[in-house]
Fold this sequence. Notes:
There is one protein chain. The protein folds into 3 domains: about 100 residues, Arc Repressor Mutant, subunit A; about 50 residues, Periplasmic binding protein-like II (D-Maltodextrin-Binding Protein, domain 2, 3-Layer(aba) Sandwich); about 60 residues, no CATH class. Strands 4-3-5 form a 3-stranded parallel sheet, with no helix packed on it. A 3-stranded mixed sheet has the order 7-6-10. It has a two-stranded antiparallel ribbon with strand order 1-2. It is about 45% helix and about 15% strand. The protein has 9 helices and 10 strands.
Amino acid sequence: MGGHMSCAAEAQLPNLLNEISGLMAFVRTVEAGSFSAAARDLGTTPSAVSKGVARLEKKIGTRLFLRSTRALMLTQDGQLFFDRVAPLLRDLGASEEAIRSDIAPSGRLRISMPNEMAPLLLPRLFGSFAADYPNLHIEVGLTDRFVDLIREDYDVALRVGNSAPGDYMVRHLADLPMTIVGSPAFLKTWGNPATAEALAALPFARYALGGITQPMRLPDGRSFIPSGRVDCDSGTALIQAALSGL
């Protein structure tokens, strides 16, 4: 009977994934010694614990307890099942504690950020952050492209502008002041615009992502899609275009 029980439990394990509450009720009952004591530990009623164990017994097709008015005794199958299941549930609990604990982070941390943000962010990242977490292996990728965190195996991306669509956790860190600039040669040719309308009429070196030109947003809330014959997907290229009078 014991050997048969072992094979049956293993065959039924996939179906037991929906019986976590019954498994918890069974294990706590064994450990606490009674349905009422298990109910106190689980924050429920003795009736709920008893029904959970009964559903579990029906699911696996064997009796786990010998019940009497005065005591509960494990059957041989019940003991075998407890020896198999209790360590699994303890491992689940230990896994949750490990995730929630204050253990210092370790392993690989892969970060993506724009090139132009590197001078602002890397001194702190390579300085105090690296010193605070000596068990972290830090990988940094510099690109203005919006990397695919999942497919390209990044843990976190620091980005400027609107977040890329996707099922990500997003945290706003700061607002960065932006300035529209032009070289002296450009201003000599086109003049220094005094109004938003005059500004919008100028040719720009445009910031474009995936072929889509990003709008210019002014302090008063107005925005416009700039015109121009130079499109760039990085700040470095935009700076060079501006220095060249474009």
